[in-house]
Amino acid sequence: MKSKQRGKTLAFSIVFLVAGFLLSFSYSITKDELENGEVSSSSGSRYGAQEERLRKELLDKQQENIALQDRLYEQQDIVREYEKSMSSEEQAFFNLAEDAENYRMFLGKIAVEGPGLSVQLEDGKYDPASGNVNDYIVHEHHVFNVMNELFIAGASAISINGQRIKHNSYIVCTGPVIMVDGVQYPAPFTITAIGDSDVLAAALNLTGGVRDQLVNDHIVFTLEKIPNIKMNPVIADS
Amino acid sequence: MWIPILALLVGIALGLFTDLSVPEQYANYLSIVVLAALDTLFGGIRAHLQGVYDDRVFISGFFFNIALAASLAFLGVHLGVDLYLAAIFAFGVRLFQNIAVIRRILLVKWSEKKKSINI
Question: Which UniProt keywords apply (chain B) (predicted)?
Fold first, then answer.
């Protein structure tokens, strides 16, 4: 009976110990939660916790977004820097490309199209009574004169009888015909030039200029302004 | 008889001064366990007053109810069903019933005592 009583007391002790522990423990935890400002009633604590977690996550994400945005701005600045340097480089490239285009035009490597004029040189009417036949035909120096005058006046491209003149073209007089880069052409010669036709015409028509000299040499000189001339490139490499 | 009371005080002190922190998701378990413990305690008092008290029933009921409530809440969390509400409801209703019975018994006893004194 005595041992039974003692066992009972022990069991009661354990029960009360556990009960007291549970009560005070839960009380202290609830107090902590309230002190931490966590708005979570005992029944809705699960949802409160979830809400808390989600809110924390949201804050984290926002923080992250701000950091990323800062990085984005930095990167954009770098890109802008690149673009600035690139645009100046592009300007340089553009200038170079333009220069290359001009040089190609002078070399006869590309087709040229534009307004210009054509000059036709015809042999003069030969009068057997009045001296040498050579005085009445077109010589290569006449062609040279016209060409040089046109180039000096600012012609972009010149062709003789459709043959494009390039930087190292040669013109040789071979008897009654002249040879342009190895191709023979008989009179009349048509010299076509692309450029400001008014300027070119004025340059040829100067008093005492090319036209007067040609006319003096009994050459029939015809000048015609053409609104649009197209010249093909010289394909053969030289 | 004062040893269990001492044990109660020791338990309260332990609970107050332990720095254990329960993760948020286990707060439900704790509340249910507390409710189960309270229910069993009041049930024991009632049984004692009604004269049907049994040690084994009381002690086994105490621990078994706690374990059952905790496992029910655990199951509810993992099934996505708020089963801990069922435990809270059951224990709460029983708690109130037990307290009501205790009150009535005490009232009857008190009035009988008064009557006997008057007579």
Answer: Cell membrane, Membrane, Transmembrane, Transmembrane helix
Residue B86 tokens, joined:
């069922």
**Residue by residue, what is the 3-state secondary structure of A25-70?**
HHHHHHHHHHHCCCCCCCCCHHHHHHHHHHHHHHHHHHHHHHHHHH
B28 inside domain? yes
Domain with residues A112-231, CATH architecture: 2-Layer Sandwich (3.30)
- A20 at B interface, C-beta within 8 A: yes
Counting the structural domains of chain B, the total is: 1
Q: Which residues of A touch B20 (CB under 8 A)?
A: 25
B59 within domain boundaries: yes
Rounded to the nearest 5°, which phi and psi values hold at A112?
-120, 135
Domain extent for B28: 24-118
Q: How many whole angstroms separate alpha carbon B106 and alpha carbon B17?
A: 35
Facing B30 at nearest CB: one of A20, A26, A40 = A26
B24: tokens are: 């948020």
Q: Do B37 and A12 touch (CB under 8 A)?
A: no
Spell out the domain ranges in chain A. Answer: 112-231
Amino acid at A84: K
Residues ≥6 apart with Cβ < 8 Å to A177? A184, A185, A186, A187
Q: Is A56 on the interface with B (CB under 8 A)?
A: no
What's the gap in Å between the CA of B79 and the closest CA on chain A? 15
Residue given tokens 């062609």 in the structure block: A143
Q: Assess contact for B40 and B62: CB atoms under 8 A.
A: yes
Edge-to-edge strands of the sheet including A163-164?
Answer: A163-164, A157-160, A189-194, A112-122, A220-231
Does residue B30 fall inside a structural domain? yes
* A47-70 pLDDT per residue, tens: 777 888 899 999 999 999 999 999
For residues A185-210, average pLDDT: 86
This model's pTM is above 0.80: no
- Chain A positions in Cβ-Cβ contact with residue B54 (cut-off 8 Å): none
